[in-house]
Amino acid sequence: MRSAPPEPSAPRSLGRRMVWMSLMAAVAGAAVASLGSALTATELLLLQEEGIALRAAARLSEETIEEREETIRELGGHFADDGDDDLSALERMDQLGAIAGSDAILELSLLDELEDVDLPRPRARIDVDGVLLAGAPSLPRPRVGDCIGFERADGHARACAVPFEEGVLVLSMSTLLSDARPEIMGWSVVVGFLVAAVLGWAGSRVLATWGLGPLATLRDRMARIEPGASSAALGDPLEHEELEQVRRGVAELVDRLGEALHDATRFSSRAAHELRTPLTTIAGELELMAEAADAERRTELGHVRAQVTDLMQLVERLLILADPTHVEVGETVDLADVVDAVCERLDPEAAARVTVTCAEDVLVRGDAPLLRALVTNAVENALKFSEGAVRVNVDDVGAPRITVEDSGPGIDASERALVRDHFQRGERARREGLPGHGIGLTLMDHVARVHGGSLRIVAREPGGTRVEVRLPPWRPASVGR
């Protein structure tokens, strides 16, 4: 007997794969989009900030010039009113020109106007050809009309340059935007990631369900295919090209399997029928020979006839298994009658070991000979593999049920699935050479399934086996199965 195959790993979900792929794509796209948006936003804010600074610098340049001229006029009037009479007009003009060109006047004018600049911590400088005339000497000098960032003692700042007469005026201001730029981008990516994760998860699940809908339709069609059915059971062509290719491939496979199954069924049925006739003839001839033989010869012929009878039973079982697709199960059958008929055919010694308990009117729709074959195999197995009592019970607990219990060694858990296969026998049966062909449980499982029921094999404590067959409840013929 072959060993039990290893437990297969659980298949992965295609829908979950689609959800994760959609989610990762959404999150990655959102992260890139958030980063791009953050970069664009900070660049736009920087441009806006530079525009404000350049306009403020231009106003400061104009107002500083006006302030300086106003200061000069005031000083000129003062000289005119309080001037020394001993100075000539030419000397007074020289003094006024010296005052007008004084860096001190420019410094005072710049500082006075700088107080009115509405920028964070503004500073300014004025120079001509790189020579400082007024203001803060530490400020950098960008190109005229441009702005640059730099570090000041009080933090990050931006400096913008505008024309100032023949020179340049540089205005700087503190800015938090450059310092906050990495944080803005980081938070943008995080927020975008979280929003995309939530929306992407919900959206991808909806999209995956919608996208896999046609595949579920094909799955349902395939699940409805009965053994021996033709490809017509797969229904009409599907509207999606990829799934239609799968449907056509499955349809071709179903047709090929149907042909192979038909050939195998026809062969096994013909072989069983061809064997049954000569075996019946041989059994009859052996019986006639035994009647005319002496005691010793009769015993030998009895052994031969027992072997022929065993072969005839095997043929009958093969005939039942020859058509694994469908049988007519339309007649009303009382399961108590089935069990009674089986027990009546047991020899007296075996019948004495069997205890039967049957509820009344446990009815099913089925094929009585097939159900008798099922119960016969269950009882014979129990008698063969145990030496104690065998209990047969028929009840209707939720559904019609037949149970057969023995007190034998039981079937090992690793062999319970294997012994349902054709010609597979348990280790003990092979080791001890017990009679049988390994198709009894296969036949029982087959008969239960063609009736719409199920076969279950469980171990009993402290020892033994319990075979349980559940069948659909009886319904009126007009309702159908």
Main traits of this protein?
Heat Shock Protein 90, Helix Hairpins, about 475 residues, 3 domains, 12 helices, five-stranded mixed β-sheet, five-stranded antiparallel β-sheet, about 15% strand, alpha+beta
Number of domains: 3
The Cα radius of gyration reads 51 Å
Separate helix tally: 12
End-to-end distance, in Å? 38 Å
What's the helix and strand layout?
Elements: H1 14-82, H2 89-100, H3 103-114, E1 123-128, E2 131-135, E3 147-152, E4 155-164, E5 167-174, H4 177-211, H5 213-223, H6 241-292, H7 295-321, E6 331-334, H8 335-344, H9 348-352, E7 354-358, E8 363-366, H10 368-385, E9 390-396, E10 400-405, H11 427-432, H12 440-450, E11 454-459, E12 465-470
Parallel strand pairs: 7-9
Antiparallel strand pairs: 1-2, 1-5, 3-4, 4-5, 6-8, 9-10, 10-12, 11-12
Helix pairs in contact: 1-2, 1-3, 1-4, 6-7, 8-10, 10-12
Report on the architecture of this protein.
The protein is 56% helix and 15% strand. The protein is an alpha+beta fold and 481 residues long. It has 3 domains: 14-183, no CATH class; 231-317, Helix Hairpins (Orthogonal Bundle), CATH 1.10.287; 327-470, 2-Layer Sandwich (Heat Shock Protein 90), CATH 3.30.565. The strands form 3 sheets. The protein has a 5-stranded antiparallel beta sheet with strand order 2-1-5-4-3. Helix 1 packs antiparallel against helix 4 (177-211) and helix 6 packs antiparallel against helix 7.
